[in-house]
Design goal:
Mean pLDDT: 90
Number of helices: 7
Helix content: 25-40%
Largest sheet: 6 strands, mixed
Order of helices and strands: EHEHEEHEHEHEHEEEH
Strand content: 15-25%
Length: 206
């Protein structure tokens, strides 16, 4: 059965650093988010509302560097990646794999599948080329998401995986992989894509 999900963000202040010194002293945005949440609930959706500091508080904190990603950033990034997967032909119940170290972009790589009805496999980052290729083939993955640190092994595995159609590198350049498979940079590939949910959002699973 289809599940309707909705997310409502309300902010009465913004960061002056990004708005030429203006602090965004708004009045009703958080109230609007509450109203929209109520409308969504009455329409049968399962709404989630974040207001004020909840929107900007850290969803991801990297222990080694202290780098943080806010819930708002995670929401936008995972939506854009979900749109990219749809644009590349992945549909509900299709499969992709994630092969990278403990990385700031790891959570969004998972979250995109969670919200687009995909199966996704988190592959041990210490596996060899042959071991990675076996999992990609066995899982019928159509897309591989990897990092620059794991790029060499990931690209070496691609010629052994005819079912993989695209490789996304979260922090490295695009180009061409083994057997002419397309390799794209995550930021470049998602630039201009919506930060809102895909139209046919559905729950996925690892």
């Amino acid at each position: 059965m289809a599940i309707g999900l909705s997310l409502h963000l309300g902010l009465n202040h913004v960061d002056p650093r990004h708005y030429a010194g203006w602090d965004g002293a708004l009045v009703a945005c958080e109230a609007d988010a509450r109203d929209m949440e109520s409308l969504a609930r009455r329409a049968g959706f399962k709404p989630v509302r974040l207001s004020g500091s909840e929107v900007t508080r850290a969803a991801v904190i990297m222990a080694g560097t202290g780098e943080t990603i806010s819930y708002g950033e995670l929401e936008a990034r995972s939506n854009r990646l979900a749109h990219l997967l749809r644009a590349r032909g992945l549909r509900r119940l299709d499969h992709y794999s994630i092969y990278m170290e403990n990385h700031p972009r790891y959570v969004e790589a998972c979250a995109a599948g969670e919200r687009s009805g995909h199966y996704y496999t988190c592959v041990n980052s210490f596996l060899t080329v042959e071991e990675l290729a076996y999992i990609l083939q066995n899982s019928q993955s159509k897309v591989l998401i990897t990092s620059q640190a794991k790029r060499e092994i990931a690209l070496a595995a691609l010629p052994l995986c005819p079912k993989v159609e695209l490789c996304i590198v979260v922090d490295g350049p695009g180009g061409e992989g083994g057997d002419g498979k397309k390799v794209v940079n995550l930021e470049e590939a998602t630039a201009g894509l919506p930060s809102t949910p895909i139209a046919d959002e559905a729950l996925g699973t690892a």
